[in-house]
Design brief:
disordered N terminus; Cytochrome Bc1 Complex, Chain D, domain 2; globular; mainly alpha; 2 strands
Length: about 170
């Protein structure tokens, strides 16, 4: 996922360095422990049936069924949840996936507006994020165009393997 040059230039090298260095702190340091615990409870009651109690998703989630149906993806680091901004994830949980499902495909992901409060959705996302290693958290945080490095506590971090430079670079 490439970030635009204008965004990178506007943020500046020092801003990027601060954001990356700070993003390593566990999500628990950025989200209230009670919020993460509530998110775990809501996830268990609402999301685990499809996405798995262990966040592993449905077996074969990468494949499309003959009826065009997609399976529930994992929310751990083996999936791609961390590659989407918090704003996207929030919107998709709230409104469903109709806006992003490719033509000819069907998602069973329901809209949770009216079933979960906005605070419950944020708590579920905080719970999911709290289960990721710091590099995955850093990657996702950098997708936020309004990222304020001051909101992130300092820490040590590593980017996901898929974000490492190619050999020879």
């Amino acid at each position: 996922m490439a970030l635009g040059r204008s965004r990178a230039a506007a943020f500046g090298a020092a801003g990027w360095a601060a954001a990356l260095a700070a993003a390593a702190a566990p999500m628990a340091a950025r989200a209230d422990t009670a919020e993460i615990e509530r998110g775990a409870q809501v996830y268990g009651q609402t999301c685990a049936r499809c996405h798995g109690a262990d966040l592993k998703g449905e077996p074969g989630w990468e494949t499309i069924g003959p009826d065009g149906r997609t399976k529930a993806p994992p929310h751990d680091e083996s999936g791609h949840t961390w590659m989407h901004s918090e704003a996207e994830l929030f919107r998709w949980v709230r409104t469903g996936l109709a806006e992003v499902v490719a033509p000819g495909r069907v998602s069973d992901m329901p809209a949770f507006a009216g079933k979960l409060s906005d605070d419950d959705i944020r708590a579920v996302l905080a719970f999911i994020q709290s289960r990721w290693q710091p590099g995955y958290q850093a990657f996702q945080l950098l997708l936020d165009p309004a990222l304020d490095p001051a909101r992130l506590p300092p820490g040590d971090w590593r980017l996901p393997k898929t974000c490492q430079p190619a050999p020879g670079r």
